[in-house]
Amino acid sequence: MEPLLRVEQLQVNFKNGNDTAVVIPNISFSVFKNEFVAIVGESGSGKSLTALSILQLTPSNAVLQGNIYFK
Question: pTM of this prediction?
């Protein structure tokens, strides 16, 4: 069965001039039909930024690497 959402090797960096800050170093997960998935972590660990990356709502200075697939 194919997942409805598949995130592979997502890395999010923020560019500030010549500097680059790695905010999400590497995350992969899949969500299948009739499955519940929770992303949990400490404040500032990248939960919201992960969701914004999936929805393509990141700030203009964000650089995304990896793959996000929707079925």
Answer: 0.87
